[in-house]
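Progress against Task 2.4 (sequence-to-structure conversion) is shown through the following example record, which the project officer requested during the mid-term review.
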Amino acid sequence: MLEIILDEGKNRQIRRMLEHLNIEVLRLLRVAIGPLALGDLPKGATRLLDEEEKQALDRAMGARNHAPASSVR
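Structure tokens generated for the chain above:
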């Protein structure tokens, strides 16, 4: 078992990286997205965020994405 933490992943990045090292990937399991732990959430399922999770996500995204949206005319 191997744990890999990515700040930003590209398409099939982990598989390609491990292939380069001659390590066979049998299964990949995403356990979190940013500060949000997925827990027992089934593949393809969604759920509402609670207020604490929303605030953690806002902090992780930083101020750069918090500018007010401008209306396009």
